[in-house]
Amino acid sequence: MIIERRKHWIEETVQHIAKQLHHPYLHKTIGTPEIDMDRLSLLMLPFFLKKTYTSRDQSYVSTAILIQQALDTHEKVSAENSSLKSRQLTVLAGDYYSGLYYKILSGIPDIELIRKIAYSIQEINEYKIEITSNRCNSIEQFLERLADIESSIITGVFEHLSFTEMIPLAKKLLLIKRLQKEEELYVNGKHSIVFSSFENSFIGEHTSVSVMKTIEKIIQQLKKEAEELIVQLKLPDDVKILLIFEQLSSRYEHSIFYAEEG
Amino acid sequence: MKLTMLYSFLKSDIEVIEEELNQAIDSDTSLLKDASLHLLEAGGKRIRPVFVLLSAKIGNYDIHKVKNVAVALELIHMASLVHDDVIDNSDMRRGRKTIQAEWDNQVAMYTGDYMFARALNYMTSLRDPEAHKILSNAIVELCLGEIAQIEDKYRFDQNLRDYFRRIKRKTALLIAVSCQLGAVAGETDKESQKRLFWFGYYVGMAYQITDDILDFTSTEEELGKPAGGDLLQGNITLPVFFAMEDDILRRKVLRVHEETSPNEMKELIELIKTSDAITQSAEVSQRYLKKALKQLDGLPASRAKKSLRDIALFIGKRKY
To answer: What global pTM score does this model have?
Structure first.
């Protein structure tokens, strides 16, 4: 029964976000972005624990996903091999999703969360510039910045909703996910900001194998720390299975629905 | 006469806005600050802040309250310019290299997003939920207008309604909400807020139509880009709609595509310039200006009202 209810919440939220993201012309030309189910399940975790989820909560979750989508869409602008039209629409799609975040929160209205998320966007862009222009002095600082880039929006929402105990776990899981994504890029011969920063700034005598080993070691350590946090948070097993097992076993391609049915 | 002369009594308040804009982009991340400052120092008309201030002056004017709205509107405009330069692959703006040309697309995207965030931060000092509904709706519409502009490129079977909806979204709405939000921040009555919204809306429509006319009638030197650039890029503007009422011109316009030669374009621009299309477009612009001025009739007499009127008339007469 509880699992069914959660599934319903997730489905409804996915539909709500998909409806917001859908724009016929953008869909036809550059496609509609996929919803990040890992991030969505993380955002919904406190509501699963609280066992309540109102339409206002759904707006909060949708907003966090939309603004993340806006920022991620803008990341694609500098990607090579895109046509002029595709680049133009990618810029505008990101701007459009940003506008939607503001519009949804204005509609609630929740001016304080508008302010908090605006601060997160500001911080994320400052950190992005720092890591892409090699302004970090150490691996630790670099990883801290990367974690903030990935988690600043969720952190803002969790703080606003007084779910602060979830922030350290969210930060670790999102950093693991980002590092694994960077590994995938690197392995497939694509540009990875993490690998290039490690190669150029942080590891003196390096080979691609040594960089890979260093990153893998960091991921393993983060997983261990995340597992400890899960124990500390005393998450019930039925909630854990929705999210954490997926994350820690690196099977991101499996959506939350499979986890529930499995 | 210079535009700034029309609101010279706001000089010290404009300085407050400039100072606040500098503060707004004062990031600890030096590259971000440099990029933002690069655009800020290039200047600009600051017409949106001016509309905010003048509209607020119709009510209870408090520069320390109003400045946050004025700064927010200018930052949103600046953020959209930074991203527009990525969209258009532009190298120059206001006589300076664009951020994407000086640095790269990635820095431009981050700078635009940063400015947008700073704008919302300033805006949240205004706790009136209605103000946020107004602005967020305008921002979404602005994006939809820009997307529609790309969708409508070289679509010669579009109608005038498509054009007016496009310019409403891309230009008129942000000017309209600048006036309306100024009135909200100045705590004017609802009727004045409504009048100021429509004043800004009509001025914005007239402004964009004039811009579209000038794209044909100005020199390359005045425009900072070749004349007729809009049409070459597939943007069907009001003068083109009127020109297409003539069969010969219509056939020539329908042949325009991205690779149309400069000579062919030059010839077509001359034909449009000497046709009735320019006069007819100017008449539409004037009609919008008249509507704008009519909205001011219902507002109490004041220096601010006079300035709003003068700015509207200036926009109607501007040559570049």
So the answer is: 0.94
